Amino acid sequence: MTATAPRIDSVFDLDALLTEEEREWQQRARAIAQEQIAPIIEDDFEHKHFRRELIKVLGDAGLLGMHLQGYGCAGAGAVAYGLVCLELEAADSGWRTFVSVQGSLAMSAIHKYGSEEQKQRWLPGMAAGDLVGCFALTEPQGGSDPAAMTTTARREGDEWVIDGAKRWIGLASLADVAVVWARVDDPSGAFGEGAAAVRGFLVPTSTAGFTATPIDGKLSMRASVQCDVDLDGVRVPADALLPGAAGLSGPFGCLNEARYGIVWGAMGAARSCLESALERSITREVFGKPIGANQLTQAKLADMFVEVEKGVLLALHLGRLKERGALTPAQISVGKLNSVREALEIAHQARSILAGDGITNAFPVMRHAANLESVRTYEGTDEIHQLVIGRALTGIAAF
Questions:
Q1: Residue 165 belongs to a domain
Q2: Cα separation of 73 and 106, whole Å?
Q3: What are the EC numbers (predicted)?
């Protein structure tokens, strides 16, 4: 499919808007995606296989927690990180998801809210790909309402005891450490939120009572790992508490980092679908001519291309805002809602151009479409982001 990329790029020169360093990060990620992920991803998707050995490859390339400063992290800019997400998701959403869970969720939580001792203990190994983290927020009954959290942590002497259940926790069965969010019994108001403050805890996954079970039967994200997590009397020392996170603003601060990466990543999946459709339109002949010579096919290709370029330009704008410290949650919601919604429509249009062959794994389109259904749901559904934007427009919360 790479032969079609210059054709797309030549119509709209996005490289002119990037710095040399940003282009270098993009090319580094593209090389890994095309040389080490793309050749094996269809087989991995078919057999529900997560290739753990690639974690170290991503770590050696500096892609894990790359937007964070210090502790072995690269300290790259927001746009560079976004471009990496785009290239990885062009190969498969599961690998962009891995980078998001590791870097934007688990590592960001430790980097934003952890003590210096916690940062030194975990972040260098996670940046190198030697350690894996997960982010245990979502619960079986909670879904889009983390305020309904039922997982609890209670203080017993010099320990915290955590009980509860989490669901759809990426990497949990592979992780070395879990960032677990729980309600803390706080009748004194010591944490500033009354009787039920939400706090984060760093839980080594080898701790007794922590059980992660991969979720089977998935028809999406099959080359990735998501788990049910049971927390049955999990005991951690007092210093497992993340000191800088109090209330739901803690996990939300990390979710916004991950949502930002999705804005870029979904456009990578969309680009891959467009490239597949474009190549097919040139090489497949029907009624004595390439199907790309038909007006209706060209109209579909043009519409798909316009939405990819609009989506990347929006992502770039949000990235520049983020680098200035001016990016708002509502702006992230605009990007996440638009990118994933348009990427799915592009996948559907690409499948129509590929015709019957489009439902086979000879092309990546159906895999991308299936994965994007998950991306559409996690880190905020379409409806949640519509309500975030609606609140910004009207000043009225309709949640």
A1: yes
A2: 14
A3: 1.3.8.6
